[in-house]
Amino acid sequence: MPSFPLLAAIFIFLLSGVRPSHPLQEVHVSRETIGKISAASKMIRCSAAVDVLFLIDGSYSVGKGSFERSKHFAVTVCDALDIGPERVRVGALQFGSVPHLEFPLDSFSSPREVKANMKSMVFKGGRTETGLALKYLLRKGFPGGRNASVPQILIVVTDGRSQGHVAPPAKQLKERGVTVFAVGVRFPRWEELHALASEPREQHVLMAEQVEDATNGLLSTLSKSDICTVASPDCQVQPHPCERKTLETVRELVGSALCWRGSRGTDAVLVALCPFSSWKRVVLTHPATCYRTTCPGRTEITNSRGNHTQLLSACDSQPCQNGGTCVPEGLDRYHCLCPPAFGGEANCAPKLSPECRIDVLFLLASSADTTLEGFLRAKAFVKQFVQASLGEDSRARVGVARYSSELMVAVPVGEYQDVPDLLRSLDGISFGGGATLTGSALWQAAERGFGSAARTGQDRPRRVVVLLTESPSQDDVAGPARRARARELLLLGVGTEAVRAELEEITGSPERVLVYAGPRDLFRQTRELQGKLCSRPPPGCQARSLDLVFALDASASVGPENFAQMQSFVRSCALRFDVNPDVTQVGLVVYGGQVRVAFGLDTHATRAAVLRAVSQAPYLGGVGSAGTALLHIHDRVMTVQRGARPGVPKAVVVLTGGLGAEDAAVPVRKLRNNGVSVLVVGVGPVLREALRRLAGPRDSLLHVATYADLRHHQDALIQWICGEAKRPVNLCKPSPCMHEGTCILQNGSYRCECQDGWQGPHCGKRSLRGDAPEARGSRRDPSQQLPRSEHPGR
């Protein structure tokens, strides 16, 4: 009878999901023919008036590695094009969540310029919105092209995993005379590539990973027209039998095992035989015909298998280590694109990494809430980090501690210099169980986590605590985290989405937090962690007084997922300010079908409270109006009675998708005329003209491609806010006087001239019958209104 742990292991394995397909293209030809195909790819040349546009998939499903191979394929094709203003024009457009024009067809007139700009394209990520990119071309045409006066060739390089329909827009493009090639990367979905490609489809569907074969196939198809020519009359296009293979993972019934299940209608537990399955890999083949140009010549292929030769490149041996990306350069050459931690090393082999002198203490949650599985996963991540980062000359020293209700330093920092010994010691760390007292663990780690490894003075390396947890803490973390940071410890957090906000509070910045979606995603974080270990984010303007209000578009045009990304961005920005009533006050307004003040300027006196309140801000839906929201801020948020402080700079940051911003020009002008700075952050394909009218005299406008890209613009936003915080302040703008009182500047101070029936410093108190007339006005010393940190001599 199998034990319960065995059954649990089987259950987890069955739910792990089907692995992605592994495509492989093979051509059934002789070794000599393979050599002729390779030689021909360098002899075909396209020289005519033609527009060639590369539409390159830069989504997360493709990944940065395959994106680099796509660029390499495009550059290789450009080598065969007679690029010039009157001959072949080349342009490039990258797409993910939105299409992004890299360079139009009329930008560059030489092969050198085109290839240099193709190589400099930066991976953007996002969803795979292929259909959206095709519709962009239907609306705009080929950017910089010569319309339909010359042949138009569209080369779509994608994995074929679009999140929308591609067949209708692809059909419309082809009906307009555009020749479409579909070139697969990574693990392509063949049926979508066929839907994209022109007829005959077998001649217009290729595989970018096999760059020379794909280049030959594309040029062979074009050579049937007058566009491409070959250098030798002995070269000819011939059909060859080929196969596209897919390695599928299927479930297969193995047998039965005892399991326990309840019986309906009774309290009894029955033992029964339950079927269980295993995964089996099956190779599915799809016969096809590949049209290739062959020329006289011979190239020896060492991996030939007689008359059934697989098209291979130098990258098939996977020479690049530690997550490096192999880019083939012909059949026997390649180069490696290495992660930052391994740049400059041959084949991305382990190097001195991280590059600064650091002592690293990994703090692993080992509580009952974390579970044994989560603890083992965290321990495996540490082992991977050690293997990837520590070499013979490494200046990084590693220690490991586990915690639940108590902290146990299992491997003191610096105790093991030999990597195999360190790995063996990690295997011996056992699971603890108990409560999740992260705050207590941080306190103890700051006190004794580095032990004798803690050197002093200039000889002391940077000390880093890397916290790995999947469970919220059962004790306070803010105080211990502040204490640890005060002792010059860099805190980094690695965890799931459930603990993101807590990790941001512990580390002091979202930039020091790595969030993973599942086990596989966790092990992709090694390179990110290496990059953060020595990073030093630029400081914000923490010592300056400021009243800051964020206005978030929570309308239906934004959607709940994008609204959550805006919330994360606001939390990230708030962490850069010293939030308290004497320095920075933060307020938040959300707007959709209505306008709602999530919290006012004087609601929360600490940064932790602001972070929690931002996370709890409601998504509203409905039709939003930025103008209504800004008027609400002017009348009911940036006022003395609602916590605004006279003599303190004031700023409003509006985050919007652009819809509903048409009516905001007058409210924005009203705020600015009253001394409130306004920055508009437009996200996505916004109404640019509407937002541009809101920019104001200092061009206070940021445009962000996608909501996921907001985090990349945080420094620009902080720089703008800090610049506004330094500008001169008019004590009467906005007016501190309530109930239509008049603010009058006088000798460096101000006074409020109150309307009949009101009195007090800010006209906030009803006057009693018989009060003296002069009581209606009150002169104020501005120092009484400024925060304590702004007083002279403080």
TrEMBL record:
Segment forming the signal sequence: 1-20
Annotated EGF-like domain residues: 311-349, 728-764
Name of this protein: von Willebrand factor A domain containing 2
Biased composition annotated in UniProt, kind: Basic and acidic residues: 768-794
Chain spans, region Disordered: 765-794
UniProt KW tRNA-binding keyword: no
Coiled-coil annotated residue ranges, if any: none
